[in-house]
Amino acid sequence: MSAWKDYVTAALLGSGKSALPALPSSLQAALGDTETMDAESRFLTHAGAIALWRRAGWKPLHHETAVVAAESESTAPLSRASMGHLRAMLAGRCLSALPEWLGEVARSRRHVPPELLPALLDRARQERVLRSLVISAGGQRALWLAAQNPLWSFGESALPESWETGGRDQRLAILRCWRAETPAMARAKVEEVWAAEPADIRTALVAELATNLSEEDTPFLERLLDDRSKEARRAVIDLLARLPASPFVARMTARVTPLLHFTKGGLLSRATLEVTLPGDPDAAATRDGLDPKAFGQQKILGEKAVLLVLMLSAVPLRHWTEAFQQTPEALLKAVQKSEFARALATGWAWAALRQRDATWAEALLDGGVAPHGEFLPAKPLLIVLPDAARAVRLAALLREGALTKKDTTRWQEFTDLLSTLPGHLPPALARDLLAVLRKECADGLPWHLRSLAESFLLRLPPAMLGEAAQGWPIDQEGVAPLVEILSFRHDALTALTPS
Fold first, then answer.
1. CA-based angle 311:315:317, to the nearest 5?
2. Which tens digit of pLDDT belongs to each residue from 183-232?
């Protein structure tokens, strides 16, 4: 449509700086005589006419497809009571219980009735965590509705076609799927686009390679040590440190091994681990990330001690137990009196996290040498432990008085640790948690802790909900909503249990 382009150009230049573009003859005839108008009015009249004329020239798409009916359901519909519970949650009552409830609907081989699916699918649009749950609990009709309405087609954002054109989250979701199913192809896709991506995207892309990380990724990651982005290089180093056979790990091991010397104890002497601090990093060491100034807390441990931490964090922990023929507990005991004890513990703790080494994590938690909190708090070591061992330690923290309503940070840390336990909490931990919550609620619960307390109660085993709803100071501020959650969960889950 050259006439429209001519008018756009004339508008940008100014109507008084160029002759008025000619209209198509058929449009000029329909418009009539405009010669008597002033220049501005004539220009705007012609532009408005040609805009309408362009729209009138578009032909609507006409595409008929037969709508295939939804397949028959193979599961039972919800009971009247359960439908009432769902309506209540969609109306805002105890909405935080919805994910668990939807999961139980699917497990009990029931499905949400069609009349409630649109509201549920709309809710899932807003909350990503609900999407797969809604599709599972909604049965065949939910799948059918999702296919009819693009707004409910939650899988569309991860279509492979969006890899080239999608936004950051879409592309990362696609890469995540590829990495889980075909790791080599996912790595190849990252290699193809690497040079053209901005630093923040490069950092995010390489972090996704942690899924199904293997020695096959080593050559690509080694090349990325020369990337121009410091953050991207850090992400690369974190991955290389998890690959014990990588050249990067070999270089770090060669640098740090001569710096530690273990001496066995005798009848009158204790075992010791002597430390020689590393020298200034050369170009090769700097390429491998040995730059103490890249970390904000180097002044606390000292720059040379930070270099030691970085080296230790990249060395397989079995290297030390094999080289010195000592257990982790014995090595930690040997360094207790060393002036570099915290640097050693910090480096080993970092390595334990990267390598998911539960034996070293247990030793570090019990060894009396705390890693430096500015670099690595001790609590993340709990995440490395098996679920049962982690639950026992969390219960011990509760009994030691780790949670008080004056310390919001501790509550948040504890909530984060609880989230690493799958499913419902073990009964012993749940009972200890209930005891603490009831005690802290004796004179009311501050508003800033209520959402955290609510998240605790959503993790209680269903079998405990009846007893858990008893014994609360219901007249105190902030307590009634907690009891409401317990009672509602109990009723909603009981209604799904076959009689």
1. 130
2. 999 999 999 999 999 999 999 999 999 999 999 999 999 999 999 999 99
Contact 145, 152 (CB under 8 A): yes
Runs of H (alpha helix) within 74-217: 80-90, 98-107, 117-126, 131-148, 162-165, 168-181, 183-193, 199-208
pLDDT band at 375 (very low <50, low <70, confident <90, very high): very low
**Consecutive H or E run containing 261:** strand 260-263
DSSP string, 383-418: HHS-HHHHHHHHHHHHHTT---TT-HHHHHHHHHHH
Q: Residue 485: which residues within 8 A CB-CB, separation 6 or more? A: 94, 96, 97, 454, 457, 458
- Taking residue 395's Cβ as centre, other Cβ atoms within 10 Å add up to 18
Residue 77 phi, psi dihedral angles, 5° rounding: -75, 160
Quote the CA–CA distance of 290 and 143 in Å, as a whole number. 52
- Assess contact for 97 and 178: CB atoms under 8 A: no
Three-state SS for 189? helix
* Intra-chain end-to-end CA distance of the chain, in Å: 71
Q: Kindly report which listed range (42-46, 121-125, 175-179) carries the lowest average pLDDT score.
A: 42-46
Q: Are strands 272-275 and 260-263 parallel, antiparallel or unpaired?
A: antiparallel
Residues whose CB falls within 8 Å of the CB of residue 81, separated by 6 or more in sequence, listed in order: 495
Those residues whose C-beta lies under 8 Å from the C-beta of residue 66, and which sit 6 or more positions away, are none
Residue 244 has what pLDDT? 96
Percent of the chain with pLDDT over 70: 92
Question: Which DSSP state fits 267?
Answer: S
Task: Give me the half-sphere count of Cα atoms (radius 13 Å) on the Cβ side of residue 106.
Answer: 16
What are the structure tokens assigned to 143, written together?
């799948």
* C-alpha Rg value of the chain to the nearest Å: 32
Please count the residues of the chain.
499
User: Distance from CA of residue 290 to its chain's centroid?
Assistant: 28
What is the Cα–Cα distance from 49 to 285, expressed in whole angstroms?
70
Q: Which residues pair with 262 in a beta bridge?
A: 273
Paired with 110 in beta bridges are: 76
Chain centroid, CA 41 distance in Å: 58
pTM listed for this prediction? 0.74
Give pLDDT tens digits for 61-104.
666 667 788 889 999 999 999 999 999 999 999 999 999 999 99
Which one of 393-397, 414-418, 441-445, 459-463 scores highest in mean pLDDT? Answer: 459-463
> What letter represents residue 348's amino acid?
W
**Residue found by looking up tokens 């070293």 in the block:** 360
Instruction: Give the single-character DSSP code of 477.
Output: T
E strands along 26-120, which residues? 76-77, 110-111
Helix (H, G, I), strand (E, B) or coil at 275: strand
Query: Which two three-digit tokens encode residue 158?
Result: 């991860």
**CB neighbour list of residue 43: distance below 8 Å, 6 or more residues apart:** 7, 10, 11, 15, 20
